[in-house]
Amino acid sequence: MINLAFSTNAFKRNSLEQAIDAIAAAGFAGVELMADVPHAYPSSLNSAARAALLQRIESHSMTVSNINAFTLFADGDTYHPTWIEPDCSRQKLRIDHTIQCLKLAREMKTRTISIQPGGPLIGMGLSRAAASGRFAAALKQVLPIAQRLEITIAIEPEPGLLIQTAVEYLEFKTAYFRKESHIRMNCDIGHLFCVGEDPGEVIRSMPREIAHIHLEDIGTNRVHQHLAPGKGAIDFRSIFAALHEIGYAGWVTVELYPYEMTAAQVAQQAMKYLRPIVKEFA
Fold first, then answer.
1. Per-residue b/e over 172-196, b at no fewer than 16 CB within 10 Å?
2. According to the model, what pLDDT value does residue 14 have?
3. Which superfamily does CATH assign the domain made up of 3-280 to?
4. Considering the entire predicted model, what is its pTM?
């Protein structure tokens, strides 16, 4: 059975508690936690705060779908510090943050964290091959913790970054982590659509690599701008048909971070649009 969740990263103008309550009110079974300021930044959450957070989520009969460890506004911006920073001290911030996110995932009773796919190559002074090697070497510092905690690191291909496509993800995985089950893909439907891939075909072609799904709509121009489901060109029935075909029983998290001013309303709209589609393939 496919489970729908909503990401708190749409609620950056709200407290984490307000975000959780609004996502529950919209009818979602799960909540993805943004592991960054102003929400569930691991370094700012002590044991009591973590226990209270989980209690609040569970009081709504919800589950944490995923820990979103993509951004690091606490130490930089949407992308920086990246996995491929030439400055080792900056790269270490990313590595240490990801380790803390793995520990948070364990405490929040979820099995995945999603991460950026290396970062942008522009301005790094690295060839693609060198950047891939640097990304892999950094991941290898994090992997033993993921294995011990039994948490999957889900690499999220994104337009404009080191790994943009599902094909590039698979090339990277094959080159550096061929048999590693704790490194898989965060399959972002909109991102795949932006780079010209067919999301349904990607789902069918690499079912074992999909650890978690991010979902948003994208316009006909394929520009990377997250839209509410139904406001763009993506055929969501084909997506859920593909997920049903491969027997996917994980989380599909709606990620609509541009809607900060109307986060609660867009969560409700997304559920209203997606619920009947999901029921078709239940």
1. bbeebbeebebbbbbbbbbbbbbbe
2. 98
3. Divalent-metal-dependent TIM barrel enzymes (3.20.20.150)
4. 0.98
